[in-house]
Amino acid sequence: MEKENVIVTHELTKRFGDFTAVDNVSFAVQKGEIFGFIGANGAGKTTAMRMLCGLSLPSSGTATVAGFDVYKQNEQIKKHIGYMSQKFSLYEDLTIRENIRFYAGIYGLRDERIREKTDLLLQQLHMKGAERTLVRALPLGWKQKLAFSIAIVHDPAIVFLDEPTGGVDPITRREFWSLIYEAAGRGITIFVTTHYMDEAEYCNRVSIMVDGRIDALDSPANLMQQYASASMDGVFLQLARKAKRSGD
Ligand SMILES: Nc1ncnc2c1ncn2[C@@H]1O[C@H](COP(=O)(O)OP(=O)(O)OP(=O)(O)O)[C@@H](O)[C@H]1O
Questions:
Q1: How far is CA 5 from CA 49, 78, 94, 158, 243, in A?
Q2: Mutation test of ligand 1: which of 16, 87, 246 has the most ligand atoms closer than 8 Å to its C-beta?
Q3: Which residue ranges does the record assign to the ABC transporter domain (predicted)?
Q4: Using a 6 Å cutoff on CB, does residue 86 contact ligand 1?
Q5: End-to-end Cα, the chain, rounded Å
C-alpha cells in the first residue's frame, strides 16, 4: 500500500528581490519518513524549511504540510508540527520539569496529559532525579535531547529539525539519533537539516540542495551508487562543488 504523503511541494519558490533563494523545488515526504535536507551554506535549506513551517510565504509554487496549505492555513500548520532550530529555545532559568510543563501548556495539552508526558519524557531521557536542575546547568547534549523531546511533546505529524546536533560529540549525536528513530517509529515524520554526512546516512532519503534547487533526492544507498561513492561525504562533495553561491 502507498504510504501517505505528509509534505508535498510543487515548484516551490522564494525570491528576495531579484535573488531566488529557493528555486522551483518539488518533492514529497511520506508519513514516518526520516527525510534529510542537506546542502552547502546558503543553499536555501532554512528558507525552504521556514516556508514549510508556515513562517514565511512562498513567492510562487505550492506546498501542503500535514494536509494544510502553506499560503492559507499557516496557523493550522503550526499546530500540527514541531520545530527545533539550531538555537533551540529552552528557558535557561527554568528547570527541566518547568520547561516541559511550559511548552506542553503552550501546545495546549491538558494538565493530566502534561503530568503523564512529563514523567514519560524524564524516564525516556534518563533525567529522572535531575528534573529540578536548571537547564542552564545542563551539558549541550542534554539540552538538545530535551529540546527535541519538547518539540514533539504534542505528538505532531512532522517535526522540523534545523541542524539539531551542531557542536556535540559523535556519541551524543548517536544518542540523539536514537530519539529520532523512536519518534519516527511512532509515525512522526522527521525533516532534518544537517552538515554531518554520517547523519545523512541515517536518513531514509536525502535531498541535496545546490544554489536553491534540489539536485539529487534518493536513499543514501542509491545516491552512493549513483555517484559511485563509498560515503555520503563523497556524494555531497561532487554536488556541492558545482555550487556558484557561497554562504554568508
Ligand atoms: N530575508 C532574506 N533576505 C535576503 N536574502 C536572504 C534572506 N534570507 C535568506 N537569504 C539568502 O538566501 C540564501 C539561502 O539562505 P538559507 O539561510 O536558506 O541557506 P541555508 O541552506 O539554510 O544555509 P545554512 O546552512 O548556512 O543555514 C542565502 O544566500 C541567504 O543570504
A1: 17, 18, 38, 11, 30
A2: 16
A3: 7-236
A4: no
A5: 44
Would you call 131 helix, strand, or coil by DSSP? coil
pTM summary value: 0.93
Q: What is the mean pLDDT of the chain?
A: 92
Whether ipTM tops 0.90, in short, is yes
Q: Looking at residue 190, which CATH number applies to its domain? A: 3.40.50.300
Rounded-to-integer distance, Cα 64 and Cα 197, Å: 28
Enclosing domain of residue 23: 5-240
Q: How many separate domains does the chain show? A: 1
What are the CA-CA distances from residue 143 to residues 88, 127, 157, 174 (Å)?
Answer: 9, 11, 23, 15
pLDDT band at 3 (very low <50, low <70, confident <90, very high): confident
Domain for residue 247, yes or no? Answer: no
Is residue 116 a part of any domain in this protein? yes
Query: How far does the centroid of ligand 1 lie from the alpha carbon of residue 51, in Å?
Result: 12
Q: Does the residue 27 lie in any domain?
A: yes
208 CB less than 6 Å from ligand 1? Answer: no
Classify residue 234: in a domain, yes or no.
yes
